[in-house]
Amino acid sequence: MELSNSGSVEKKFPSWLVPVLGYAVSIGCMIWVYRGADWAKEWKLIQGTEWYWVLAAVCCDIMVYVVQGWRWNLLLSPVGGIPVKKTVQAIYIGLFANEILPFKPGEIIRCFLQSRWSGVDFPVVLSSVVIERLFDGVWLILGFLVVATTVHVPRFLLTGSLILATILVLISVMMFVTMARRRHMKEEPQTGVRRWLNHLADGLEAMGNSPSFIYSALLSLIYLLLQIGPIYFLMCGYFDSMKMFGVAAVVLVLLRLGSIPPQAPGNIGSFQAFVIIGLRLFGIERDGAAGFATLLFVVVTVPLWMVGFVALLATKMRLHEIRRDAHEIHSPSR
């Protein structure tokens, strides 16, 4: 009966539908961004961007993932861990996977690598990533509210922030319920999902009761500010009259909200579109922003590809093998 139900679900929702929709969204965004763009003007602006602003943006973007690795190690320190260098390597491999593979498998891949290298149970590692996302969401919302007091933001962004806050509350409730049922679950037969949830609850308790939990939460603020850095630095070099940190923060919020729907690997197309939408909120026309969106995409993506590829080579493994093993281990039924 279960097999027939699974087959009927696959017939109703074919596996190819989501990636096709994602590519359609990305192609549509690319057409909207680049149709009719004045590239003689845009290329002149790109060439006029001083190299030190570009270098500052690249360095800041790299520091984002170094800080993320540091924070991840702090979270996992009560249950185990590996050197920060290895953690950053796992993060970059996950990011590289997101850039070239559909369905964004990077989060599962980095959790799998962290679990394999540190010996920490996979559900525990996965719970640490959930905590990371909660930290990021809380700081993102608080930062957005602060920015909203200094610059005008449209109503749809406020609505998006409210939706994000609702999602964070629901995730927090689910984590609380898991913790509350922890003792009861241990008394039940330990098979499949129950064993998986028990490991997850153990990890949540260990991390939540450690002082490193607070340090990780505070480090998440630095992590957020560093993400604004590449956008801000490139604005300083590209737009002579636009050096507002608040504008860069709004663009970052749009990029984060825009990365949620299905789209092509690397968020290509939608990335440029949401950058342009953010800039147009502050009076920059689409034609004047297309070059900046392209430059920003290159600056934050090309170094990621390069470092991620080197990090993958260092494992002496193939990406499709890592993805396969990660898919097998993350199934709660195993």
Q: Nearest-angstrom radius of gyration?
A: 21 Å
Helix content: over 70%
Which residue ranges are poorly predicted, with pLDDT under 50 across at least 5 consecutive positions? Answer: 1-11
Taken as a percent bin, the fraction of beta residues is: under 5%
Q: What's the count of strands?
A: 0
Q: Which outline best applies?
A: globular
Order of helices and strands: HHHHHHHHHHHHHHH
Q: Count helical runs.
A: 15
Overall structural class, as computed from helix and strand content, comes to: mainly alpha
Number of structural units classed as domains: 1
Instruction: Tell me the distance between the termini.
Output: 20 Å
What's the main sheet like? none
Mean pLDDT equals 80
Write the SSE topology.
Blueprint: H1 2-12, H2 17-34, H3 39-47, H4 51-76, H5 84-100, H6 106-118, H7 122-148, H8 155-180, H9 182-187, H10 193-208, H11 211-238, H12 245-258, H13 270-280, H14 286-315, H15 319-329
Helix pairs in contact: 2-13, 3-14, 4-5, 4-7, 4-11, 4-14, 5-6, 5-14, 6-7, 6-15, 7-8, 7-10, 7-11, 7-12, 11-12, 11-14, 12-13, 13-14
